[in-house]
Amino acid sequence: MNGDSGLAELTAATAEFAAAREWQPWHTPKNLVMALSGEVGELTALFQWLTPEESAVVMRDETVAADVRDEIADVMLYLVQLARVLDVDLVEVATAKLARNEHRFPALPR
Amino acid sequence: MNGDSGLAELTAATAEFAAAREWQPWHTPKNLVMALSGEVGELTALFQWLTPEESAVVMRDETVAADVRDEIADVMLYLVQLARVLDVDLVEVATAKLARNEHRFPALPR
Amino acid sequence: MNGDSGLAELTAATAEFAAAREWQPWHTPKNLVMALSGEVGELTALFQWLTPEESAVVMRDETVAADVRDEIADVMLYLVQLARVLDVDLVEVATAKLARNEHRFPALPR
Amino acid sequence: MNGDSGLAELTAATAEFAAAREWQPWHTPKNLVMALSGEVGELTALFQWLTPEESAVVMRDETVAADVRDEIADVMLYLVQLARVLDVDLVEVATAKLARNEHRFPALPR
Fold first, then answer.
1. Could you tell me one molecular function GO term of this UniProt entry (chains A, B, C, D) (predicted)?
2. What is the dihedral of CA D29, D31, A72, B4, to 10 degrees?
């Protein structure tokens, strides 16, 4: 799968998914922020007792890796939905912010 | 800007950004999860006192809208970096999870 | 039970609990902050789809109320443990902060 | 200060504080959970780049220690307020949960 070509499709798919279940009334920005926060909490729980070294090789254990991918997926799904209802382009705002950070945190001299 | 064509570029740009500052030692998965969580906390703070109705029109106020876009950008930047160091394709895992959710939560009959 | 007389006892009990399981090496401040954050995520998930009005009467449903109490308990347990390992008196710092807030946010005139 | 005798007083003081500013309409359980989550995010940010070893001695730096105490105070204040509006006794539920955990996670043999 091409991760690049899929973000617009994914965004549209989340809209169709919510509409097919008539979940739109619950998908206020406030509620989606909470849902995003809850999923980040579940992701955090997977890493809370790991040493930095263990966290660096967390994907070597296929069971844990599956859990990590699952929680990252949930976080991404709510972030995509939040951005959609707020009409925010995730890649555009992140790219612009990274550009601003280039100035805030100058690179080391080579 | 094309949000779709930019995710791979954004991912690469975050890698270059961290490398140019020699920040990689701090960018363990564990630390990036914490950074993601901290940014979601800042996003949450923007919505905590809003009614559902106020949250639905939060982008009408240009000052607040700029803050919301800024925090969403920070969340996206750390999510992209976390996915990069874990070698997870954000769109792929989210698309796959959405497909699984189609079965877990059947759509309403038409 | 007297909630007041129990905070010092609770704090001591969490220390004994961790020691009896030899969990102290995992209970660094960093890890306990993550554990606290993860539990707040679970608490958040209980409230994410509720309207403000529903959230105000959430304790009327005994099943949900039990879940809420359980998650609040987990949050409190990790906050108590974090404060203990950092040698922070929870009531003292919160009382002092509230006093500072009295000045930051003046009360309405009567 | 006696941390034990102060929790009931602190709880009452937060009620008076909110009433004097007529903030009660905003202090729904849902909103207080979000506020708690936002403060935990700020606390998380203080620890995100620290090694476990650095986090263990974080209070040796008086400036950082003051920030840590300040964020823990904010977390405690919102937790106390959430518990108050939900009529939950923080020490009671945490003590009861710890007792249940004694059974879920048996202590090591001596």
1. nucleoside triphosphate diphosphatase activity
2. 150
CATH numbers and ranges of domains, chain A: 3-102 (1.10.287.1080)
Which of D17, D28, D46, D57 would best serve as a mutation to test chain C binding (most C beta carbons within 10 A)? D28
The residue-averaged pLDDT of A12-25 equals 97
Task: Tell me the chain D residues in contact with residue C5 when contact means C-beta distances shorter than 8 Å.
Answer: 4
Which residues are CB-neighbours of B6 under 8 A, at least 6 positions away? A4, A91, A92, A95
DSSP H helices in chain B: 6-20, 29-47, 52-56, 62-86, 90-104
In this predicted model, what pLDDT tens digit does every residue of D19-42 receive, in sequence order?
999 999 999 999 999 999 999 999
One-letter amino acid identity for C101?
N
* pLDDT beyond 50 at B26: yes
Structure tokens at A72: 């990252």
The answer to whether the Cβ–Cβ distance between D38 and B41 falls below 8 Å is yes
pLDDT tens for C13-64 read 999 999 999 999 999 999 999 999 999 999 999 999 999 999 999 999 999 9
Contacts of A51 in chain D (CB under 8 A): 52
User: pLDDT tens-digit profile of A70-82?
Assistant: 999 999 999 999 9
Scanning A1-110, the segments in alpha helix (DSSP H) are: 6-20, 29-47, 52-56, 62-86, 90-104
Residue A102: its chain B contacts at CB < 8 A?
A: 17
D104 class by beta-carbon count within 10 Å (0-12 exposed, 13-18 middle, 19+ buried): exposed
pLDDT (tens digit per residue) in A29-46: 999 999 999 999 999 999
| CA gap D67, D53 in Å, rounded | 18
Amino acid identity of residue B8, one-letter, is A
Residue C74 DSSP code: H
CB A90 within 8 A of CB A79: yes
Burial of C14 (0-12, 13-18, 19+ CB in 10 A): buried
Q: What values do phi and psi take at A49, rounded to 5?
A: -100, 0
DSSP string, D17-69: HHHHTT-GGG--HHHHHHHHHHHHHHHHHHHTT--HHHHHTGGGSHHHHHHHH
